[in-house]
Design brief:
By secondary structure, the chain is α/β, with parallel strands linked by helices. It has one domain: Rossmann fold (3-Layer(aba) Sandwich). 36% of the residues lie in helices and 10% in strands. The protein contains 7 helices and 5 strands. The protein has a 5-stranded parallel β-sheet with strand order 3-2-1-4-5, with helices on both faces. ATP binds at residues 16-26. Pathway: Purine metabolism; 7-cyano-7-deazaguanine biosynthesis.
Length: 229
């Protein structure tokens, strides 16, 4: 039996880390005419408190009242990622083959599964996630194939009346295009945070900072957040 969408108000759940990509994805969701429900995950990442501040600031910018702050402590227990294990250094040389050490095991799969439960409860029809293939080369949970498969699994594992679409509006964009699109939509990029290492001033040398800064450079724009380097 095929599932039918409900005729209720159009709701979308946005996975909002506080970074530039997820913030732009949330602004696109609003532009698409959705009532936004924001979800943020505290998972023991090095910049957890700074990312949470960014999330709250952006929710204020978007006037989002319905939001969830979810704690996932087990990522620090399993380690295996430079983002959640303090004994593993965050790479700063920009050269890394294979799956990067900043990959958190099945993070997006876990985020999407939890968000799906929230989407079912809230009777939302879409979930937005700001995955970017350029940003995540080597991350197995950022591909179109993965998103298609987990969408199928989510809809098989939820009620017949639940029909959820996972939207990835940035997946094939370059960082330059993301900066340009963000500026077109008046996204408050000064409230976003992308650095893997630091919370006061972005390090400027981790992979995330490098990609972000290069995007601004190619877009001929100035990044409004402070950097050490």
């Amino acid at each position: 039996m095929s599932k039918q969408t409900t005729s209720k108000s159009k709701k979308a759940i946005c996975i909002l880390s506080g970074g530039m990509d997820s913030t732009l994805a949330s602004y696109i969701a609003k532009k698409d005419g959705n009532e936004i429900i924001a979800v943020h995950f505290n998972y023991g990442q090095r910049t957890e408190k700074r990312e949470l501040k960014a999330f709250r600031d952006i929710c204020n910018d978007l006037e989002i009242l319905n939001k969830y702050e979810i704690d996932i402590p087990f990522f620090t227990q399993i380690g295996a990622s430079a983002l959640t294990d303090e004994t593993i250094d965050v790479p700063v040389n920009g050269v890394e083959s294979g799956v990067p050490i900043t990959y958190v095991p099945f993070r997006n799969g876990i985020f999407l599964s939890i968000t799906a439960a929230i989407a079912e409860k809230e009777e939302a029809s879409a979930m937005y996630i700001g995955v970017v293939q350029e940003d995540s080369s080597g991350y197995p949970d950022c591909t179109d194939e993965f998103i298609a498969d987990i969408t199928k699994a989510i809809n098989q594992g939820t009620k017949e009346t639940t029909k959820i679409e996972i939207k990835t509006p940035l997946v094939h964009l370059s960082k330059k295009q993301i900066v340009q699109h963000a500026k077109e939509l008046n996204v408050p990029l000064e409230h976003t945070w992308s650095c893997y290492k630091e919370s006061e001033k972005a390090c400027g040398v981790c992979d995330s900072c490098r990609l972000r800064l290069n995007g601004f450079k190619l877009a001929n724009a100035k990044d409004p957040i402070p950097y050490k380097v």
